[in-house]
UniProtKB/TrEMBL annotation, chain A:
Name by which UniProt lists this protein: Glutamine transport ATP-binding protein GlnQ
Matching PROSITE patterns: ABC_TRANSPORTER_1, ABC_TRANSPORTER_2
UniProt source species: Pelagimonas phthalicica
Top-rank taxon, per record: Bacteria
Keyword annotations: ATP-binding, Nucleotide-binding, Transport
Automatic annotation (TrEMBL), chain B:
Subcellular localization(s) per the UniProt record: Cell membrane
Keyword Transmembrane helix on entry: yes
TM region positions: 32-53, 65-85, 91-116, 155-181, 201-225
InterPro entries the record matches: ABC_perm_TupB-like, MetI-like, MetI-like_sf
Organism: Pelagimonas phthalicica
Domain called ABC transmembrane type-1: residue spans: 26-222
A GO cellular component entry from the record: plasma membrane
Protein name: Sulfate transport system permease protein CysT
Length: 237, 234
């Protein structure tokens, strides 16, 4: 499918001021489907995603894409836990990544209109993005990440402040992207969402990847007792 | 007190009768300061953005120096520019001394640190907000800078106007490098200094009021121009 996979991570670690945020991580990811990252607060889900994306410094270990790191970075986007809005209109936010990649304004605007429609923001194209509601901002961030047709999208709790309906809409868009061959790596606290979307599951705990398995067996019977406790809703220690 | 009233009425009559000499020096004040504003902003704003975006070793030092240079004494700047531009100086062959261009140069040196410092503060905040996104999008250094400058343009306008205010009210440096020559380099501030020296307080005050009016007028105009492209508040 996509030539950036398989991704092979060996002993990757990132730390900040002496504190290890995540790692050492060993992980093999192939080129298909949705990988859902779960784990308690502070487990290092965000840090892992950022590390793989290249947004956090790799202090030791290796992250090897099947292609060059540069090419891999070009084909991936990131939706942050707290959406970052450019101080521009919704439309200008949407065309921004396209314009930065050199697409003509007219073409970019047509695509933006299309994506605004898909995430239900078509009536707000002229509105300044920073005044959108939290949920609308998340939808905009999602559309802005998908508009460049990336091969891989990282999503850090993309539905954190969305109501049920908006969440369903977003999940539909994600499933569509997945069907179109886009690889998704997504973190979530919503186990329902994890079950709906996951092809594989990464269970994080205290900065470590404790389990990486296909979704069905994981949810039926996780290998580690910690993951089992987490799925039961117990406090994991 | 009578001087103040005399000054006000003198100012009124000078403006009302469109006094030729007044128009000339007021226009020159405007030209020199707007020139300094344009050149100064063209240097200071990208510099401020670069300082916000790039992490190089001397960054903190450069910012500290820039902040310190905000308090640069204009007279000293004038003196240095004078020496550089004087016939025996390194740029003497250009023949710029005692021309409006020399005055623009001196004012640019005075206002660049001011504009850059104020601009840097707002650009730094904006960069903190945008950092993760722009890094994630793999944009080039130039694109980062352009994005910051565009999205912070309102704050940058204020920074530039602060520079303009400093330039149009400045007298020490332009007196030295311009020489306050009638019909050549006389501007409002140097004329005020001259008339005060001669003891014509009413005329000096009149020119002072016109100077203030001019500064307010330019500020309002530029703010209004900035507002015409409405995009809501941030
Ligand atoms: N820049 C940073 N400096 C210092 N510590 C950090 C930094 N970023 C994250 N951490 C710490 O690293 C740990 C992992 O954080 P991370 O954000 O990856 O967790 P998470 O699994 O995403 O949590 P949540 O579910 O709350 O989003 C936390 O203890 C956090 O406080
Ligand atoms: Mg997180």
């Amino acid at each position: 499918m996509s030539d950036m996979f398989p991704l092979s991570v060996k002993g990757a670690k990132t730390s900040r001021r002496g504190k290890v945020l995540v790692g050492p991580v060993d992980l093999e990811l192939d080129g298909q489907g949705t990988c859902v990252v779960i784990g308690p607060n502070g487990a290092g889900k965000t840090s892992l995603l950022r590390l793989l994306h290249g947004a956090a410094r790799l202090n030791s270990g290796q992250i090897n894409w099947a292609c060059s790191t540069e090419a891999a970075h070009h084909d991936q986007t990131f939706v942050f836990q707290r959406p970052v809005m450019l101080r521009r209109s919704v439309e200008d936010n949407l065309i921004y990544p396209l314009r930065m990649r050199g697409m003509a304004r007219k073409q970019a605007k047509a695509l933006a209109a299309d994506w605004a429609e898909r995430v239900g923001l078509q009536d707000m194209l002229r509105r300044p993005a920073p005044v959108l509601s939290g949920g609308e901002q998340q939808k905009l961030a999602l559309a802005r990440a998908l508009i460049v047709a990336p091969k891989l999208v990282f999503l850090d709790e993309p539905c954190a402040s969305l109501d049920g309906r908006a969440m369903r809409e977003i999940e539909e868009i994600l499933q569509e992207a997945r069907a179109g061959g886009t690889r998704l790596i997504l973190s979530t606290h919503d186990m329902g969402q994890a079950k709906r979307l996951a092809d594989t599951v990464v269970f994080m705990f205290q900065g470590q990847v404790h389990e990486h398995s296909p979704a069905e067996p994981f949810f039926a019977q996780p290998e580690t007792s910690r993951a089992a406790a987490f799925l039961r809703g117990d406090i994991v220690e | 007190m009578t001087d103040l009233w005399d000054g006000l009425s003198r100012a009124f009559w000078l403006v009302a009768t469109l006094d030729a000499e007044l128009s000339e020096i007021a226009l020159r004040s405007l030209q020199v300061s707007l020139g300094a504003l344009l050149v100064g902003s063209a240097i200071a704003l990208p510099l401020a953005a670069l300082l916000a975006v790039r992490r190089f070793r001397a960054r903190r030092a450069v910012i500290a120096v820039l902040n310190a240079l905000m308090g640069l004494p204009p007279v000293v700047v004038g003196l240095v520019v004078y020496v550089l531009l004087s016939r025996s100086g390194p740029f003497g062959v250009l023949g710029l001394l005692f021309t409006p261009t020399a005055m623009v140069i001196a004012q640019v040196i005075i206002i660049v640190p001011l504009i850059a410092s104020i601009a840097h503060q707002s650009l730094r905040d904006l960069w903190a907000e945008y950092h993760d996104l722009l890094i994630s999008m793999n944009v080039t250094q130039t694109q980062k800078i352009a994005t910051l400058l565009w999205d912070a343009r309102r704050a940058l306008l204020t920074a530039s106007l602060a520079g303009f205010g400093r330039a149009i009210g400045e007298v020490g440096a332009i007196m030295i490098v311009g020489g306050n020559i009638d019909h050549a380099t006389r501007v409002l501030t140097t004329a005020i200094a001259l008339e005060t020296g001669k003891g014509d307080f009413a005329l000096a005050l009149a020119l002072g009021f016109i100077l203030i009016a001019l500064a307010i007028f330019v500020n309002l105009t530029i703010h209004w121009l900035g507002r015409t492209e409405r995009e809501g508040r941030w």
